[in-house]
Amino acid sequence: MSGDPAAALRLPEVVARLYSVSALAELVDLRRTLHADPELSLQEERTCARLQRTLDQLGVDGVTRVAGTGVVGRIPGRDRKAPSVAVRGDIDALPIQEDTGLPFASRNEGVMHACGHDVHASWTVAAARLLRDEPAAGDVLLVLQPAEETGEGAAAMLATGILDEVAAIFGAHVDLTFEVGQAMIQPGAVGAAADRFEVELRGQGAHGARPHQGLDPIAGAAQVVSALQTVVSRRVPPDQPAVVTVGAIEAGTAHNVIPDRAVLKGTMRSLDPAIRELLADEVRHVAESVGAACRLEVQVRMLQGTPAVLNDRRAAVWAREAAATVIGAESVKPLPVANMGGEDFAFYQERIPGCFMRVGARRPGDPVAFAHTPHFAPAEEAIFVGGALLAAAARRASAELAAAS
């Protein structure tokens, strides 16, 4: 970077003061290096090596590779007897062809950081810098996690036992719905349970000109898709957010052949555990009943994914109060609408009190570009805001936990 990185990045002044000019440049370079060389879930070899090397250079304690392509390190606190807290960033990319036009766009065909995990990894390193220079009361564990996109990474990190002694955990996600310098933090549900279903319909093949000689699974599949639209509208209470989406239909090989099989694949999203169970029951009931009415054999598979992201009340209060010291209380708000996206940070929260934040990543006046699309390009200013928020939340939680211990 040339010139004054802080000025070029248009950072909020209070955030810019937290970083040296060299730190700004190094963190931007890290993000751009990660962005240009994205790797899919559980294949993050070069990403892992780069992050491990970066934390070593920062003097982070105990930098270790875990869970295949995960990295952990520890920032010692002022009181080694105080409870530990953790900050987490995810590091994997998506199977998407990038179309941002950025000079540091992905060099890897069909792979892109289309969900901002390059920024998440970089702001975790930013938080490490800030915590190294101003330690928390207790130790802070840095968790750079692989395979969030497949929902496997958090469970794999937990299985290593490295988080067994952690008393609170914080994470965050870039969000281009909101401008740089804003953060959405609240207790309760901030992300949905993300479950999958597959419906296989078996009939009897026939010539397309003589449909009466077969049992058409495509016609049955169309009726199942239509009937599934009533699950949310007629079975879920209106005050409960829920989604049932059929995302794929597989059937047939030719325009004049009725196949003997059709498969529907879809997702179910919910915030409440009772609604999660209801959706699975209703999708199964509708598919089996409508399929039977079409005289088809029906097999339904339910594939449970990540649970809902449920922020612990105390952890959310600590994060909100800490964020107010960084970006101002007026810039810390609750989500205006329910977020039905999934996030495997929820697995940590089943074991550890935690808070997951949404961090604004759009420059004022820029258009909104949604995650998981070829045009997704979060503002680099978010690296420094996110790092400051994670570090401040870790310090606040650590101080509260130390005082109570």
Describe this protein with a few key phrases:
405 residues; alpha/beta; eight-stranded mixed sheet; four-stranded antiparallel sheet; 11 helices; 16 strands; 36% helix; 25% strand
Please give a structural write-up.
- The protein has 405 residues and is of the alpha/beta class.
- It has helices spanning 5-9, 13-16, 21-36, 45-58, 117-133, 153-159, 217-235, 273-293, 313-327, 345-349, 381-404, and strands spanning 61-66, 70-75, 84-90, 140-145, 166-179, 183-184, 188-191, 193-202, 206-207, 242-251, 257-258, 261-270, 297-306, 309-311, 332-333, 354-362.
- An eight-stranded mixed beta sheet has the order 1-2-4-3-5-16-6-15, sandwiched between helices.
- Strand 1 (61-66) and strand 2 form a beta hairpin.
- Helix 9 (313-327) crosses helix 11 (381-404).
Query: How many H/I helices?
Result: 11
Strand-pairing-aware structural class? alpha/beta
Task: Report the strand count.
Answer: 16
The major β-sheet equals: 8 strands, mixed
Write the layout of secondary structure elements.
Elements: H1 5-9, H2 13-16, H3 21-36, H4 45-58, E1 61-66, E2 70-75, E3 84-90, H5 117-133, E4 140-145, H6 153-159, E5 166-179, E6 183-184, E7 188-191, E8 193-202, E9 206-207, H7 217-235, E10 242-251, E11 257-258, E12 261-270, H8 273-293, E13 297-306, E14 309-311, H9 313-327, E15 332-333, H10 345-349, E16 354-362, H11 381-404
Parallel strand pairs: 3-4, 3-5, 5-16, 6-15
Antiparallel strand pairs: 1-2, 2-4, 6-16, 7-14, 8-12, 8-13, 9-11, 10-12
Helix pairs in contact: 3-5, 4-5, 5-11, 7-8, 9-11
